[in-house]
Amino acid sequence: MRPQLQQAYETETSAALSQYNADIMDQAFIHLERAHILGQQYPLAHARTHWWMLKVGWRRRDVVEMIGQMPRIVGALLFSRLWVPIGNTGGARVPPFKSMPIPEDLHALLMRYGRDSKT
Predict the structure, then answer these.
(1) Element (H or E) spanning 12, and its range?
(2) N or C: lower Cβ tally within 10 Å for the chain?
């Protein structure tokens, strides 16, 4: 992962963990969704985001999220380098193969520093 993209991913992940530790799960999940968009082409970053989504699901006692994240963790490790649905936010209530619109600020980062970018 290029340093600029890594920094943005770590910023979102750090914000998510701060919110998680403050027991503000809705905000933690929003930051995890953003981290997912940024890191989904990189197996370890992708799986790490799903792991934290699983932890948020556990803390919320959200069975759908917990069950939905388990296969996503495995899929992230196995398939991230091959294909990912661009923009997918990664939550269990989102179809795992659905591409989604990317927020403008993240889109600019991905266009400039994403795995398939030319710069």
Answers:
(1) helix 3-21
(2) C
Q: Which domain holds residue 87?
A: 3-113
Domains of the chain: total: 1
> Does a structural domain hold residue 119?
no
Domain assignment of residue 79, yes or no: yes
Q: List, for residues 14-55, the tens digit of each pLDDT value.
A: 999 999 999 999 999 999 999 999 999 999 999 999 999 999
DSSP, residue by residue, 51-111: HHHHHHHHHHT-HHHHHHHHHHHHHHHHHTTT---TT----TTS-TT---PPPHHHHHHHH
Let me know if residue 118 belongs to a domain. Answer: no
Is position 33 within any domain?
yes
Tell me the pLDDT tens digit for each residue of 66-80.
Answer: 999 999 999 999 999
pTM: 0.93
| Measured distance CA(11)–CA(77) in Å, rounded | 22
